Amino acid sequence: LKLASISQESPDTKYFKFRLPDHSITGVQPGKAVLAFVNDNESGKLKVRPYSLLYIPDEKEFLHLAVKLLNGDGTSGAFHRLKVGDEVTFRGPLPIHTIDYQKLSKNVNFIAGGSGITPVFSTIQNILLNHDQNVSLIYANKDQNDIPLKSKIDQLKRKYGDRFQLIYVVDKQHNFENFVSQGRINPSLLKQHLYSKDAQLFVCGPDGLTKAI
Fold it and tell me: Where is the FAD-binding FR-type domain (predicted)?
């Protein structure tokens, strides 16, 4: 697919839009992932890695992808060196576990860390738009200035109000709306901000986060 646009989502995260060849193609389903094959403009090597796609309701023209720079020599570095007009090959969707929306509890809790927000954001957006559950999100990052998809998450909060409980946790700096805690997620914070009755919990993030939960 040809890269149509690039925008800087945060200091380490870029937002990519790839043009779909046929506008009649159905948009990406929430939580789906694909395998990306990227030719690195610097090394000339082919980089391959799975990525979760962003769910954009009613989108039929573009494929949306947010990529956080993790390693300059890896696939994320190759993505960050792309220019508009470059082409990337995608294969998928991959056979990964997705949520059965018909079996969700009345209240749904999510805990995400760093770039693990991508499938979580897509799932939350679908729940709020197409279903009637209440959602709580605790989202952990190192720095308030590098929170992937923060602007889009804040838009959901403004739109859905009390149906969407949003909490940010950061290691450094904290002077923005919905901030609640500096440091790491802890049992007290979970008890205070997650739904406990008729509720489910989903976690997506680095190994350290998932093991701690």
Answer: 1-100
